[in-house]
Design goal:
single chain; Rossmann fold; two-stranded antiparallel ribbon; 8 strands
Length: about 280
């Protein structure tokens, strides 16, 4: 029988059999939020698809994807589901704890929503203090190196990147092209706040220096687009992005499989040289 890699597809007996291995379990987190007028709001679908590909490439098991994240600045857009910070951290803790309770300790979070990152860090630090296990986390959209951005977009890389543009739009074009509305694709134009240039939802620029200011996405752009130019996206670019993320994450999982999450000073036999 072909090996299953999605936990939702496994019987408990099949999963129990895997516990005798040096099993790595992937914990995918995404978000239900606007991605501009042209792309589906359920970006957790991308994290779910990538997580399964990582599991298949590395021999890991992918847990069900958590579809909601912390994204308070998208609250002004209908259709999104934003968790409170306390709700999200409790969810991370409970999900991790469900595996630690059964001595499944090689856990890798695949975070598909960047704003989740600081809360994930807070939570896994507390878990390590209380339970002695270090949980790894990969921010998948931040794992794309500058060299790849330059290869994919050349001199337009800075203009292509950002919420409402790439990487999400190109990855949607590759994985779920039938869900897109290409007729609604348009560049992002940022508004001003307090009469000053906006630097995203975190604040404004005054005399060239960032000043923190809690802004909503629709105060930056009516469509909630925070900088990316979706007209530069393509399915081929999406394919290369997915291939890179899957390859990178799978290699880390294979490395982590030989590590001890209770002793981060331990070096596996196949130690990876810094690039």
């Amino acid at each position: 029988m072909r090996s299953k890699h999605a936990l939702k597809d496994m019987t408990f007996a099949e999963f129990r059999e895997r516990l005798s291995e040096d099993l790595v379990v992937l914990l995918p987190f995404g978000s239900q939020e606007e991605q501009g007028p042209h792309a589906p709001m359920g970006d957790f679908m991308l994290t779910e698809a990538i997580a399964l590909r990582v599991a298949e490439a590395s021999g890991a098991v992918a847990a069900p994807t958590i579809p909601f994240g912390y994204a308070d600045f998208f609250r002004t857009v209908p259709g999104g589901v934003q968790l409170r910070a306390s709700t999200f951290t409790a969810l991370v803790e409970d999900m991790v704890g469900a595996f630690l309770d059964h001595r499944v300790e090689r856990l890798v979070i695949l975070n598909g929503h960047t704003t989740n990152a600081s809360l994930i860090d807070q939570t896994v630090r507390r878990i390590r203090r209380e339970r002695g296990v270090a949980v790894a986390s990969i921010n998948i959209w931040q794992s794309i190196p500058d060299a790849l951005w330059k290869k994919l977009h050349g001199s337009e890389a800075a203009r292509a990147r950002g919420h409402g543009g790439d990487p999400i739009t190109s990855v949607y074009m590759h994985l779920f092209p039938n869900l897109l509305r290409p007729d609604l694709i348009r560049p992002s134009v940022r508004s001003r706040a307090l009469g000053l240039p906006t630097g995203g939802v975190a604040g404004v620029q005054f005399e060239g220096i960032p000043v923190q200011l809690p802004l909503d996405a629709t105060e930056i752009n009516a469509d909630g687009m925070l900088g990316g130019d979706a007209t530069l996206a393509s399915a081929e670019i999406g394919r290369e992005i997915v291939d890179h993320i899957v390859g990178f994450a799978a290699r880390f999982v294979e490395h982590f499989q030989h590590c001890d999450p209770r002793d981060v000073t331990f070096s596996p036999a196949r130690e990876v040289e810094p690039s």
